[in-house]
Specification:
The protein has 25 helices and 7 strands. The longest helix has 33 residues, at 305-337. A hairpin with a 2-residue loop joins β4 (407-413) and β5. By secondary structure, the protein is mainly alpha-helical. It has helices at 49-72, 79-106, 110-131, 134-141, 151-168, 174-199, 218-223, 238-247, 251-262, 268-286, 292-297, 305-337, 349-360, 374-389, 471-489, 510-516, 522-528, 540-550, 554-573, 581-592, 609-612, 619-631, 641-652, 660-668, 675-682, and strands at 204-207, 232-235, 391-395, 407-413, 416-424, 436-441, 451-455. Among the domains are: 45-199, Endopeptidase. Chain P, domain 1 (Glutathione S-transferase Yfyf (Class Pi), Chain A, domain 2), CATH 1.20.1050.40; 204-262, no CATH class.
C-alpha cells in the first residue's frame, strides 16, 4: 500500500445491517483440507535476534545480487533479463520485511524487537537506494517499448515502477538524491521511535477501593482485585481502558484514566513528531511539491491535497448537525447527574452514550457481553467468512509462533491452499497496542503463498475462560478479518507490487468496513452468539434493540473521526516551521472535535496514524463512503453466497491489479456515490420498546 520506494513495503494496516430472517444455517466444517500447507522452517526468523539478523542480511544479499546483475546486463534489454529480476529483487525483501515488522511490534523478547527494527532500517535503506539509482532506473525505463506486449498486468507493473521512481526522486541531481536517501533513513528510525514510545508507555491509575468499579461488568471487577498494597490498578491498555470509560460511574476516575491515556508517549514523541513533520516537508519540497500532503495524495484515489480538505469540509457539513443533536441529548442526560454541567467532556462520551442507549433505547451493552465469548466469536467468524467466500480454515497446532498465545492457521479457497496467517489476539507486555493486519508475504499467481498476522488486544481465555467481549470488539474483529482475507485472496498477480493489498491507500479500508455490517445482523449473530452459561442464542429482540441503539451517537462518533482526519491532514498541509503542536491541537479541537480540548493533554504523542497514515486519516471516511455504497448490493441478502463470490472475484482477488474505482464500478455496475453514506449518517435513531416480560 506504500509507494514502492517510500518506506517499508511491509508496513501494517493500521485502530448497520438488514436482518436476515430464517433459522441459522449450519456452520461449515473446519476439518482439514486434502492439501497440506507448506512446512514452516524448523527455526523461524523470529526465534532469536541472531536468527532474524542473519536471515535479514541473507535477503539483502540476494536482492543486491539481483540488482547488480540486472544493472550490469550488457545485452539487449528484455523483460526476462531486467524486469523479471527486478520483480524477484523485491520479492527477496518481502518476507524478511514482513516478518521483521511483526517481530518488531509483537515479539515478547526485547532483543528480537530491536533486531527487527535494525532489519527494517537496512531493508528500507536498500529500497530507498534502489529508488534513487539512475542506472537501475535507466535499465528499467529501457523496457517501455515492451510494456504493452505483457498485457494489462505487465503495463500496470511497469507504469507503477516508473511512477514510483519519479516519486522517489531518481531524476534529481546527485546531491538531492543523497539528501532524499538520508531523509528516508531518518524517517524510518523516527517512526520506530514514535511507535516504541507508545507501545512501551503503559500508564495506570490506582484505586483505593472498588467504588470506582461500580457499574463495571462482574468479570472485569473479578479480574481487577486489589494487589498486595490494597490498590486496584487500571491501565491504559485497551481491555482496561474502554470498559472503564464506558461503565465506571466515577467521573473523576474516568477523567484520570483518560488523561493518562491521552498523554502516552509524551514528552518523547513531541520532539519525534516535530522532526518527522520537518523531514517530510523537506522531502516533499525536494520532489517539487508544496507540502507533504500534496506529495502523499498524488498516487491515491483522491489525487490532490486540496481534494482532501474539500472532502473533510463536505462531510463535516453533513455530519455536524447530527453530532450537535447527539450532544444535546448527551448533555441533557449528564445534567441529571450534574445539574451544573455545561458540556460533554471526552471522558464522558462512552459513559453517557451508554446511559442514553440504556434508558432511551432499552439497551444496556453489558447485557450482550455474555453472548460474545472470544472462542465462540472466533469460530463463528471463521464459519461465516467460510460460507460467504468459499473458504475453509485449518489450525496448524505444530507451527512455531513467537508467543504461546499466538495461533497459526491455513486458509483454503474451496480445496486449494490460499495462504497462512497468525492470530495474535491478546494483550501482553511490549506488544503493539491497537488492532491491525500486518502483511508478512505477498501471494502471487505462481503459487507463492500469501501470509499475514492479525493483531488485536481482546480478552484472553487463558486468564478468564469466558473471555467476554464488548460487541464493539466483535465489530473490530470482523473489520480486521476483512483486511486479512483481502490480503490472502489477492494472489492472482505475477508481480510483487500488484499482489496483496497494494491498492490505492484510501481504498484499503473498504473491504474491512464493509464486513463490519455482518456483525450487526441477527441472522448472523445467532449462529455464534450463544450465552456463555446457558448456550442459548442471543435473542432477536435484544439484537433489534442493539441495532436501534447504535444509531444514536453515530453523529458524534463520525465527527470525532473527521477531527482525526482534519488533524492528520492539516498537520501535513502547512509548514511545520514554528508549528506549536499544542496550539495546533487546540485549533483542531475548536474547529472539528465534538468534544473540547483537554488541558495539559497531548493527543499528538500517541496518535499513531500520524506516523503510518501521515496525512491520510481521511481514508477511513473516504473508504466508508464506498463501503456504504457497496453494501446496498447486500442489503436483505447478507448470506447470499453468489453475491459474496461476485464480490470476492471483482473486489478482493484483483488486489492492486486494477484501479479501485474501476473494480467498484464493475461490482456496482455504475460509479460509486455518496447517497448511501448520506442516508446512513442522517437516518434518525428510532427508540425501541422492549418486549413485555
Amino acid at each position: 500500500m506504500r509507494t514502492l520506494f517510500q518506506g517499508p513495503l511491509w508496513a501494517g494496516l493500521l485502530i448497520t445491517a438488514t436482518a436476515c430472517g430464517g433459522a441459522p444455517a449450519p456452520m461449515p466444517s473446519l476439518a482439514p483440507a486434502a492439501e497440506a500447507p507448506a512446512a514452516a522452517p524448523a527455526t523461524p526468523m523470529w526465534a532469536s535476534a541472531e536468527r532474524l539478523s542473519t536471515e535479514c542480511d541473507a535477503a539483502l544479499k540476494t536482492a543486491q545480487t539481483l540488482r547488480d546483475g540486472l544493472v550490469a546486463e550488457a545485452g539487449a534489454r528484455t523483460w526476462e533479463n531486467t524486469l523479471d529480476p527486478f520483480n524477484r529483487m523485491f520479492l527477496a525483501l518481502d518476507t524478511a520485511g514482513g516478518v521483521a515488522a511483526v517481530a518488531g511490534a509483537m515479539s515478547p523478547e526485547k532483543a528480537v524487537r530491536e533486531a527487527a527494527e535494525g532489519c527494517e532500517q537496512r531493508l528500507s535503506k536498500f529500497t530507498s537506494d534502489a529508488g534513487l539509482d539512475p542506472a537501475l532506473y535507466a535499465a528499467v525505463a529501457a523496457l517501455k517499448p515492451q510494456r504493452s506486449a505483457r498485457g494489462p498486468q505487465g503495463e500496470r507493473f511497469f507504469d507503477k515502477i516508473m511512477r514510483d521512481f519519479r516519486r522517489a526522486g531518481v531524476d534529481r541531481d546527485a546531491a538531492t538524491r543523497e539528501r532524499l536517501g538520508a531523509i528516508e533513513a531518518e524517517l524510518v528510525k523516527l517512526g520506530q521511535d514514535y511507535g516504541r514510545s507508545v507501545r512501551e508507555d503503559v500508564r495506570a491509575i490506582e484505586l483505593d477501593d472498588a467504588s470506582a468499579l461500580e457499574g463495571l461488568p462482574e468479570d472485569f471487577i473479578k479480574a481487577h482485585a486489589p494487589g498486595e498494597d490494597g490498590k486496584i490498578r487500571i491501565t491504559t491498555d485497551y481491555p482496561d481502558f474502554y470498559p472503564f470509560e464506558r461503565y465506571s460511574k466515577d467521573a473523576a476516575q474516568r477523567q484520570a484514566l483518560y488523561r493518562k491515556f491521552i498523554n502516552r508517549g509524551f514528552p518523547a514523541n513531541q520532539k519525534t513528531l516535530q522532526q518527522i513533520l520537518t523531514l517530510r516537508e523537506e522531502k516533499a519540497k525536494l520532489l517539487g511539491f508544496d507540502t507533504w500532503a500534496a506529495y502523499n495524495a498524488e498516487d491515491k484515489m483522491v489525487k490532490t491535497a486540496a481534494r482532501i480538505g474539500e472532502f473533510i469540509e463536505q462531510l463535516a457539513a453533513i455530519v455536524r448537525p447530527v453530532a450537535d443533536a447527539d450532544l444535546k441529548v448527551l448533555l441533557a442526560r449528564k445534567r441529571q447527574d450534574d445539574p451544573k454541567a455545561e458540556r460533554i467532556e471526552t471522558w464522558d462520551r462512552f459513559f453517557y452514550a451508554s446511559k442514553v442507549r440504556e434508558e432511551q433505547y432499552a439497551f444496556d451493552a453489558r447485557t450482550v457481553r455474555p453472548y460474545f465469548s472470544f472462542p465462540k466469536v472466533k469460530a463463528g467468524l471463521f464459519a461465516l467468512y467460510g460460507e460467504l467466500f468459499g473458504l475453509r480454515f485449518e489450525r496448524l497446532p505444530e507451527a512455531p509462533t513467537w508467543d504461546p498465545s499466538v495461533e497459526a492457521w491455513a486458509m483454503y479457497v474451496e480445496d486449494e491452499l490460499a495462504g497462512t496467517f497468525y492470530l495474535d489476539m491478546h494483550p501482553r507486555e511490549g506488544k503493539y497496542k491497537h488492532a491491525a493486519v500486518f502483511p508478512m508475504q505477498v501471494g502471487l499467481a505462481d503459487g507463492r503463498e500469501p501470509r499475514a498476522t492479525l493483531v488485536c488486544n481482546f480478552p484472553d481465555p487463558s486468564k478468564d475462560p469466558k473471555a467476554l467481549m464488548e460487541h464493539q470488539q466483535v465489530v473490530t474483529f470482523f473489520h480486521e478479518f476483512g483486511h486479512l482475507v483481502h490480503h490472502l485472496l489477492a494472489r492472482k498477480s505475477d508481480y510483487f507490487n500488484l499482489g496483496g493489498i497494494n491498492v490505492e491507500w484510501d481504498f484499503a479500508e473498504v473491504p474491512s468496513q464493509l464486513l463490519e455490517e455482518w456483525a450487526w445482523d441477527v441472522g448472523v449473530l445467532q449462529r455464534f452468539a450463544k450465552h456463555v452459561d446457558t448456550g442459548e442464542p442471543i435473542p432477536a429482540e435484544l439484537v433489534a434493540r442493539m441495532v436501534a441503539a447504535k444509531e444514536f451517537g453515530k453523529g458524534v462518533a463520525t465527527m470525532r473521526q473527521l477531527f482525526y482526519a482534519a488533524y492528520s491532514y492539516f498537520a501535513h498541509a502547512r509548514s511545520p516551521k514554528g508549528l506549536d503542536l499544542d496550539a495546533f491541537s487546540d485549533e483542531m479541537y475548536a474547529k472539528f472535535s465534538p468534544y473540547p480540548a483537554v488541558p495539559d493533554s497531548h493527543i499528538f504523542a500517541s496518535f499513531g496514524h500520524l506516523v503510518g497514515y501521515s496525512s491520510m486519516y481521511y481514508t477511513y471516511q473516504w473508504s466508508l463512503v464506498i463501503a456504504k455504497d457497496l453494501f446496498t448490493q447486500f442489503e436483505g441478502k447478507l448470506l447470499d453466497a453468489a453475491q459474496a463470490r461476485k464480490y470476492r472475484t471483482l473486489i478482493l482477488e484483483p488486489g492492486g491489479g486494477r484501479d479501485a474505482a474501476d473494480m467498484v464500478s464493475d461490482f456496482l455496475e455504475r460509479p460509486y456515490g455518496m447517497d448511501a453514506y448520506k442516508a446512513w449518517i442522517t437516518k434518525p435513531a428510532v427508540q425501541v420498546t422492549p418486549a413485555a416480560e
